[in-house]
C-alpha cells in the first residue's frame, strides 16, 4: 500500500504559534513504510520500491502486532559522532547486489525517523488531525536502533530553529496540529531551511540531547 505523500511549502523565517508543532529536518531520504500482514515494503516519495535497499528496517518495533503505514525520513547517523552523513546514505541507496547490501546493513545501518502514521489496522488516518495521529504513533511504535519517533516541540519554532542553526541541521518543519494528511504540497506544512553554509556537517545527536520544551499535545 502506497499513499501519495504530503509535501511542504517554504518560508524564510521561523515563527512561534500555539497552533503548530515544530520538528527538526534531517538530511536524508523521504520514506514510506507499508507493514501489512507482517511484511514490510519501503517506498520513496516517488513510489520507487526501496524494500531491498534497507533490510534493517524490515522488522518494525510495534508495541503490538498491527498493520500500519508510516511516513518519515531515513538517514545514516554516524554512531561515533552523531553526524548525519547524506553521502553515506546515497551509497546505500545505489547498492544493487545482495552481498553488498548485507555488508552495508552491518557496517552502515540506517535509522528511520518516523513523523507520521497514515494507516492503522484497516483505518485510513489521512482525514484524522495531525495531533491525533501523533498520539497514536506514540502508542503504536517503539524506538530501537533502527527506528525513532521524530522529536517535536509545541509552539516554540524560533527556539527550535536556533538549536537547528547551532548544530547545523537542515532546517525545521512547521505543521499545523489540526492538519489532515493531504496529497501534494500544502500550506499546512511549512519548511524553513537553515541557510547558514559555514556548517560542514549535519548533526542529529546533539539536538536530541538539547534541553527543549517537549510539550505533549493534548
Report on the structure:
- With 218 residues, the chain is of the alpha+beta class.
- It has one domain: D-amino Acid Aminotransferase, Chain A, domain 1.
- It has helices at 86-94, 98-107, 130-140, 157-167, 205-209, and strands spanning 6-11, 16-25, 29-36, 39-43, 68-75, 83-84, 111-120, 123-124, 147-149, 153-156, 171-176, 184-193, 202-203.
- The relative contact order is 0.25.
- The model is unreliable at 197-218 (pLDDT under 50).
- 21% of the residues lie in helices and 35% in strands.
- It contains five helices and 13 strands.
- A hairpin with a 2-residue loop joins strand 7 (111-120) and strand 8.
- The strands form three sheets. Strands 3, 4, 5, 7, 8 and 9 form a six-stranded mixed β-sheet that branches. Strands 1-12-11-2-10 form a five-stranded mixed β-sheet.
Structure keywords:
218 residues; alpha+beta; D-amino Acid Aminotransferase, Chain A, domain 1; five-stranded mixed sheet; 5 helices; 21% helix; globular; disordered C terminus
Give the rounded overall mean pLDDT: 89
Helix content: 10-25%
> What is the highest CATH level, the class?
Alpha Beta
- What is the radius of gyration computed over CA atoms, rounded to a whole number of angstroms? 17 Å
Number of domains: 1
Residue ranges: pLDDT <50 for 5 or more in a row? 197-218
CATH third-tier fold name: D-amino Acid Aminotransferase, Chain A, domain 1
Structural class call reads alpha+beta
Distance between the terminal alpha carbons, to the nearest Å?
Answer: 30 Å
Q: Give helix and strand order, one letter per element, not per position.
A: EEEEEEHHEEHEEHEEEH
The largest pleated sheet is described as: 6 strands, mixed
Portion in strands: 25-35%
Tally of DSSP β-strands: 13
The number of helices is: 5
In CATH terms, the superfamily is: DNA ligase/mRNA capping enzyme
Shape: globular
What's the CATH architecture?
2-Layer Sandwich
Amino acid at each position: 500500500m502506497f499513499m501519495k505523500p504530503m509535501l511542504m511549502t517554504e518560508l524564510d523565517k521561523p515563527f512561534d504559534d500555539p497552533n503548530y508543532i515544530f520538528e527538526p529536518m534531517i538530511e536524508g531520504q523521504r520514506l514510506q513504510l507499508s507493514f501489512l500482514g507482517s511484511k514490510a515494503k519501503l517506498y520513496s516519495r516517488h513510489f520507487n520500491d526501496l524494500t531491498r535497499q534497507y533490510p534493517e528496517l524490515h522488522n518494525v518495533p510495534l508495541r503490538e502486532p498491527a498493520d500500519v503505514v508510516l511516513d518519515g525520513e531515513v538517514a545514516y547517523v554516524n554512531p561515533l559522532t552523531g553526524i548525519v552523513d547524506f553521502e553515506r546514505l546515497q551509497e546505500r541507496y545505489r547498492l544493487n547486489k545482495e552481498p553488498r547490501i548485507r555488508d552495508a546493513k552491518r557496517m552502515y545501518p540506517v535509522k528511520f525517523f518516523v513523523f507520521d502514521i497514515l494507516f492503522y489496522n484497516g483505518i485510513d488516518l489521512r482525514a484524522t488531525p495531525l495531533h491525533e495521529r501523533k498520539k497514536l504513533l506514540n502508542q503504536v511504535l517503539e524506538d530501537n536502533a533502527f527506528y525513532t519517533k521524530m522529536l517535536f516541540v509545541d509552539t516554540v519554532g524560533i527556539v527550535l530553529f536556533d538549536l537547528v542553526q547551532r548544530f547545523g541541521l537542515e532546517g525545521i518543519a512547521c505543521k499545523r496540529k489540526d492538519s489532515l494528511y493531504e496529497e501534494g504540497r500544502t500550506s499546512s506544512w511549512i519548511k524553513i531551511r537553515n541557510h547558514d553554509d559555514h556548517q560542514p556537517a549535519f548533526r542529529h545527536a546533539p539536538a536530541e540531547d538539547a534541553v527543549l520544551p517537549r510539550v505533549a499535545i493534548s
